[in-house]
Design goal:
The protein is α/β, with parallel strands linked by helices and about 400 residues long. It has 13 helices and 13 strands. Helices cover about 40% and strands about 20% of the residues. The longest helix is centred in the middle third of the chain and has 25 residues, at about 185-205.
Length: about 400
């Protein structure tokens, strides 16, 4: 019997997993998402409630990451906890996140801090939120405070998580707060988020010199069907290119990919017959990651290194999870072999958590969480992913 082919990742390739504050902490009652979840006419399947109780159980989460042998953990800080009222910063909340960073470093894990992951304090949304240019200035100040407090204990900073998703889902699709459907307003919000990214980069560099900083962008493998040229070009321009244009001079680009999108003359053409559709409503299509890495690299002219800051699958079938990630990682190796500078891979997510409007039904975690006791139980995919990271290689 022939031996399995083993494909190795470059020396120094980083392996991590990720979460976001509102999806796991619980009780983030002072932000726009909590308000959105609890509105009488909400589109949300259920409220976030206690999350995974990670505000209190964060040490368990650190131990889980350590047990998997991963070298980095990407998490977000909750703006509404750190700045519960305008200009009023919580020393206790900053100390909480500093303790998380320090505990990770003690276990040899790099803390990767995301400054904004989908949630905005209510006091700011009362002022117009990201529809207002004031949000840009407020976010710059917040970023400066966080970078000043965590600069010596964090290893990397991500400014805004998927600003394209925030703008489209909140102001065009109506599935995120504030639940509007206005294409022009969505594009104006996108410009404010881009400006927010730029001020945050400068704030981090000023308050935490030497800490690499960049944007994390949701990318989709847009595939052209006959007659869809104009729709695809417009979709790519507004959802990706305007954000990629804003990354010049950054230290890295975080690429976040889950699936493809087939574009015909009427826009999204739906799933291809015979291709499995996941709980999130999109296709099982692991090849999308490599295709988006190629596009990001080509579009930016190879001007900055790429990190896969999110990739994963929401499924209750853990064999399917391993299959998806194995294929996606094979694509990463293909991209690296083509000369694309991909520095690391971060699986989304560490825990089965609150998946925004869809609630707790989609299961992205390497670790399951009991919804009553919050007990954490690693899945077989966690052991598999840990073995790949330990070997820095993929057994094909």
């Amino acid at each position: 019997m022939a031996a399995h082919a083993v494909r190795r990742f470059p020396e120094g390739f980083t392996w991590g997993t990720a979460t976001a504050a509102h999806q796991i902490e619980g009780g983030n009652a002072n932000n726009d998402w909590w308000e959105f979840e609890h509105a009488p006419d909400t589109v949300c399947a259920e409220p976030s409630g206690d999350g995974c109780d990670s505000w209190d159980r964060w040490r368990e989460d650190v131990e889980l990451v350590a047990s998997l042998g991963l070298d980095n953990y990407r998490f977000s800080v909750e703006w509404s906890r750190i700045e519960p009222a305008q200009g009023e910063f919580s020393r206790a909340a900053l100390a909480h996140y500093r303790g998380l960073c320090a505990a990770l470093r003690d276990r040899g894990i790099d803390p990767v801090v995301t400054l904004h992951h989908f949630t905005t304090p209510r006091w700011l949304t009362d002022q117009g939120g990201w529809e207002s240019g004031a949000a840009v200035e407020r976010f710059g100040r917040f970023s400066e405070v966080v970078a000043g407090a965590l600069g010596d204990v964090m290893s990397r900073a991500c400014t805004i998580n998927e600003p394209n998703v925030v703008a489209v889902m909140g102001w065009m699709a109506g599935m995120f707060p504030p639940g509007k459907s206005d294409k022009e307003l969505s594009r104006a919000v996108a410009q404010n988020l881009i400006a927010g990214h730029r001020v945050a980069v400068e704030a981090v560099r000023g308050a935490a010199p030497g800490v690499p900083v960049g944007l994390t962008l949701s990318m989709t493998d847009y595939q052209l069907l006959e007659g869809g040229e104009a729709k695809l070009e417009s979709r790519r321009h507004h959802s990706e290119d305007v954000f990629l244009d804003a990354t010049g001079g950054d230290d890295f680009l975080g690429v976040q990919v889950y699936t493809r999108n087939r574009i015909g003359p009427n826009g999204w053409a739906g799933a291809e017959p015979g291709v499995p559709v996941l709980d999130m409503g999109y296709e099982f299509y692991p090849a999308s990651l490599a295709n988006c890495l190629r596009r990001a690299w080509d579009y930016t002219g190879g001007s900055l290194p790429l990190l896969v800051t999110e990739n994963g699958i929401g499924t209750t079938d853990d064999v399917q999870r391993i299959d998806y990630v194995r294929q996606a990682l094979g694509g990463v190796l293909d991209a690296i072999a083509e000369g694309i500078d991909v520095r690391g891979y971060t699986y989304w997510s560490l825990l089965d958590n609150f998946e925004w409007a869809l609630g707790y039904r989609p299961r992205f975690g390497l670790v399951s969480v009991n919804r009553t006791s919050f007990a954490r139980t690693p899945k077989p995919s966690a052991a598999w992913f840990s073995s790949v990271a330990a070997a820095n290689a993929l057994d094909a």
